[in-house]
Write the structure tokens for this entry.
Amino acid sequence: AKVTGSKSSRGQLSSEVAAAAAAMKVKVHELRTKTKADLTKQLDELKSELATLRVAKVTGGAASKLSKIKLVRKSIARVLTVMNQAKKDQLRIFYKDKDLVPLDLRKKQTRAIRRALTKKEAGMKTLKQQKKDKHFPQRRYAVKA
């Protein structure tokens, strides 16, 4: 777009940047519907675009290209985040019924809660206590009405 006059140049530049941002911004809900191959392809496209934008920055490119660098970087981050979340979801499904689960898939909670006894462990009785309960049961008294 050609800029004419000094007053309108600033407004026109910002509208160009806004138009580029609207066209370029990646929506996460759209990414979640895509397959891994599509995400990888989009990631490669974004990375190559970032490389060209960085070249433009060094050679003294337009302001619209310089402001687009941030958008592309954020879009790359969104794609990578969606890919990593999908991978982690698959791992959670894989390890669901296994005895041993990787540390990053376990519940975080607090250290004290993780160390605490389970309900089953807390309810267990020692052998000595079991014998006491068996041989000396709680006495029952008949109450006169």
About this structure: Residues 63-94 form the longest helix (32 residues). Helices lie at 6-24, 28-31, 36-59, 63-94, 111-115, 119-123, 127-135.
